[in-house]
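Appendix B. One record, verbatim.
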Amino acid sequence: MSPWWAGALIFLLTFAVYLPVLRCGFVWDDDSLVVKSRLIKAPDGLYRFWCTTEAPDYWPLTSTAWWLEWRLWGNRPVGYHVVNVLWHAVNATLIWLILRRLKIPGAWLAALLFAIHPVNVATAAWISEQKNTLSMLLSAVAVLSYLRFDEEGRWRWYALSLAAFVLALLSKAAVVMLPVVLLLCLWRLHSQLRRRDVLCSAPFFIASLALGLVTVWFQSHRAMGGQAMRDSGLVSHIAVAGCVPWFYAYKILLPVHLAIIYPKWEVAGGSWKVCLSAVVLVGCFELFWWKRKTWWGGPLVGVGYFVAMLFPVMGFFNQGFHLYSLVADHWQYYSSIGVIALAVAAGTTFCRRDGRRSGRRSGPPTVAGRHSGPGLPRLAEARR
């Protein structure tokens, strides 16, 4: 199958799976963030999104998209859903292109599974999570452009990558860990990090730090009104951070009992047992690093990406949603592809190796007229 058709098939299958969403309405904070927002309806809303602190959070690019959409669709939810599903389908296609460029086994299947995975319904079917789909789309463009820059050395690709990343941050700053992802991709391709890689990543880290601090301020002063959603100690925060990746990995590998709001965990920091998950997670990274020069390099990149993209929502930073729960399916939208791609790559590699072993056991294929049975040479002579 040609690459164009393979990408188009991912896009079309994704859109087909999400067709029922187009009949859905608004849920939870869709009203307050979009259709009933005074800033969305204000003629000078664009200025106030970008240049003031009136918005509940600093997503000026996403807010701009909603400002335009409200003037197109108004109170009709179908238009907003079409846009969100469209972004999700594009994201799945771009993920396939990235995995393909990184030479990940089973890249096409991994991208398709990401597209239709149940945990991502919390993003693709939720209008207010257009900030997820839009920021991931721009992040994927940033990664693809940077890989082109790494391959061709043309600075226009670098400029496009940096610009796309800044726009992704302005859509939702949860993608602040993308510079780490870029370094992981380069390590995957070259088995090392060169001095040039570190220097070229510096502007990305600076942009992450700047807009990350802006988001922390907005969360603290606007979303939470200056109140801390969690007042537990450092040990409790570490314990939560150790549990979060395991919870999300479980939901990816076994997507049952999914919920918009999960019960809030009560994590006490008085015992070493609560930190066991964090200890095991660190142990896994040590094992993957120790075996990085073998096939274990794949798990190091996959799990590294998964945890890196989860870092902003692992519990180290207070967020308004912590009032309801410490975890949410829409928080793992960016990171889920790490586990999915790793599982698909492992399965694909195993099947290929098993197929090669089966081929060796069955012996070389026969050729007509050569060791293909006693009757065939005589039949050939009779024909001559």
